[in-house]
């Protein structure tokens, strides 16, 4: 596909890599400024933690054209870094926090590389400030993940760890802690009426029950939806009764692979035209000049063929869906 065809699409969910630094991000901004002529809010760029949230903010400040729609949030893989506790002795707080929210409790080696936990209230206030600063922004990536295990360096992107060979520990973040973080993010989205992009692994029932409580979120996007067709139908039935947009966003490497194709086709066939989105779910700083278009066009063509749309109808529908709630 041509650059013209790229500009007729958009990316409902992409990332910055965990290794990207503030300094290195300047080269990415320069590349986008010089070589890419894309519509405003082409990339819905997710933040995931306490580091990339500020890098994303800085990149948005220096783009000549607002091709990023920033989403600010706490990914389930980073929820363990945030606490609702308060204690003047930070080392005591650290041990209490991680022993309370991880199962099993962390080993001394893992505890040593885990950072002092971040005050959730202060971080949510920082996100709120960024949402006011960038009026078209949303909240994401947020959600629930029952399968994630803490990496041996404490968290992905930990520049302070000397652990060169990162493995997965046995520790998982307890679901009640993930829910507490999720609810803070959803309440913020509800209060400010901002769209959300949701991650879910093996927790589709609890996620549905929680998200449906918030009636002022203008758009709920289920990113790289991995639930069953019946679970998808449950979301559709609920949101057809509401004045809220629901989007199912599909990616090439999660939803478009051969062994997932039949389930994808069944779900896509059930959705309203207005509920279908496409995404890459990859880091644009690493992939933009490599295989980015393969990911974007791969899922685009899969969805188009599954739905039976001709190219012009496909472009019109996808563009309309992708650029909702961007201002």
From TrEMBL:
The record ties this protein, via InterPro entries, to: Metal_Hydrolase, Metallo-hydrolase/TatD-type, TatD-like
Q: In Gene Ontology terms, what is one molecular function of this protein?
A: hydrolase activity, acting on ester bonds
Q: Which domain of life is it from?
A: Eukaryota
Record's PANTHER family? Answer: CUT9-INTERACTING PROTEIN SCN1
Q: What is this protein called?
A: Metallo-dependent hydrolase
Organism of provenance: Candida tenuis (strain ATCC 10573 / BCRC 21748 / CBS 615 / JCM 9827 / NBRC 10315 / NRRL Y-1498 / VKM Y-70)
């Amino acid at each position: 596909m041509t650059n013209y065809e790229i500009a007729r699409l958009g990316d409902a969910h992409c990332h910055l890599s965990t290794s990207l630094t503030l300094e290195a991000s300047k080269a990415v901004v320069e590349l986008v400024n010089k070589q890419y002529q894309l519509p405003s809010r082409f990339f819905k760029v997710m933040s995931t933690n306490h580091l990339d949230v500020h890098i994303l903010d800085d990149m948005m400040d220096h783009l000549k054209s607002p091709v990023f729609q920033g989403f600010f949030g706490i990914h389930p893989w980073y929820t363990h870094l945030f606490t609702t506790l308060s204690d003047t002795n930070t080392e005591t707080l650290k041990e209490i926090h991680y022993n309370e929210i991880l199962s099993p409790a962390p080993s001394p080696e893992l505890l040593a590389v885990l950072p002092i936990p971040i005050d959730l209230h202060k971080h949510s206030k920082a996100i709120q400030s960024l949402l006011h600063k960038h009026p078209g922004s949303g909240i994401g990536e947020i959600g629930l993940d029952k399968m994630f295990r803490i990496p041996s360096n404490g968290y992905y992107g930990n520049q302070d760890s000397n652990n060169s060979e990162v493995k997965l520990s046995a520790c998982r973040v307890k679901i009640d802690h993930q829910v507490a973080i999720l609810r803070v993010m959803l309440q913020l989205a509800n209060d400010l009426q901002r769209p959300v992009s949701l991650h879910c692994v093996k927790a589709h029932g609890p996620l549905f029950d929680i998200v449906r409580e918030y009636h002022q979120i203008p758009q709920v996007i289920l990113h790289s939806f991995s639930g069953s067709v019946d679970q998808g139908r449950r979301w559709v039935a609920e949101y057809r009764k509401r004045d809220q947009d629901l989007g199912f966003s599909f990616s090439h490497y999660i939803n478009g692979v051969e062994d997932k194709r039949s389930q994808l086709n069944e779900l896509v066939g059930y959705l309203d035209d207005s509920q279908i989105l496409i995404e890459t779910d990859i880091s644009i700083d690493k992939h933009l000049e490599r295989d980015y278009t393969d990911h974007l066009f791969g899922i685009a063509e899969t969805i188009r063929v599954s739905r039976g749309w001709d190219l012009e109808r496909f472009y019109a529908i996808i563009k309309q869906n992708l650029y909702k709630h961007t201002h």
